[in-house]
Amino acid sequence: MDFSSTKIIKKTCPIRQLGTGAAHHFFGYYNKTPWHQTQPYVLANQYGSMDADLTPDQVAAVGYFDVSDNDSFHKIGETSTWNWQMGCQLQWLDGATGNKVIFNVRAASSDGHYPSFGALIHDIDTNETTSLAHPVYSVAPDSSYAITVDYRRLYVTHETIGYSEDRGRATDLPLCPADDGLRRIDLPTGETRLLVSYDQLKSFHHRASMDKAIHWISHAEINPSSSRILFLHRWTERVEDETCFLHRLITVNADGSGMRLLECSDHPLPQLQENFDPNAVGTYDYEKSEYQISHPFWKDDDHIIVWGPHADAIHYHLYQDKDGGSVDIVGQGLLTENGHMSYSPTNQRWLLTDTYPDSQTSIRKLLIYDTEKDVAYDIGDFYTSDLKKVSRCDLHPRWNRTGSQVCIDSVHEGQRQMYVVDVSAIVGE
């Protein structure tokens, strides 16, 4: 990204750390907001280390900061089912009555399809908790259902977003099963059903590269009206090297019908040669691949923004969720690196994103792009220490409910903490 461009404006914004003390805090991914709809609460996970290698016995506190009470941290539960990238999928149930959150936990006696993991729904007002026999990935905005995948499979294929098990890394997972894939969980009843199987995905616009590969689903998200789901279908013959991952962006109705292929980045893989050394791949090489499809986000019910290739060029692309729908470049010449992007919840003129660390300076950038004026605001430089790939700390910027503040996770001050950036001076212009 050319930060000398006259269309990239350096803008200093007020920033502060949430909370104090020796404990580390983080939230997780870019596609969920930690802020409550009306209360001054910000969800967070709390842990005693900033970069531990995760095992099933490491317990993180689950809770929220009350920003109206000196950022006091209120613990509501614990979990040993989490990772540094996505946490425990902690999220508000916006469509439910009262003040409820949902998060993943370890569930040794679960009767679900994934016997090591489940989820809890916690009512902050009554302190009551409801157990679910399956973990969650994303919750529908109306809170009627959630979607999930097998986190054991993710731990094998994409460890940074999977969960470890007591028995270690699974070695008996089928490559492309017909009885697993994307599942739907009815939140009031806990009942589940399979929406799309891996076997279905392999048959859907089949590619020869799928035949010997292990398949998985990630980055699943539900549109604002809760009617349609996006996800990334990925497959590979070499899980040790993420540059060998192949990608497709797919959408489907909430009942599993109407599956649609929006993009596919299947391409030849010289890395599959016997003499290729996956250890030679840098920590961020995968995120900077010219074939990567990553970080999709629903702009509205009918459009998805994603970083990925289309028509032989990689950009931020805005897809119309329609057969033969339009594909438009966003921020051409300005937004030239992979990042975690989201539109303001109140004014879609503004697109929030970040960058991965610069290879020379280890600096990550925080950016807001003005889609009307075609100008990018560079609002923060954040140094990252040399963490492992699985324990790295991406900024993962998230808007508050009014689009006036941004929350990030960062290690630039030597701890893993959450920070709030006031961007009202930019978006209020």
TrEMBL record:
It comes from the Bacteria. This is Oligogalacturonate lyase domain-containing protein. It comes from Pollutimonas harenae.
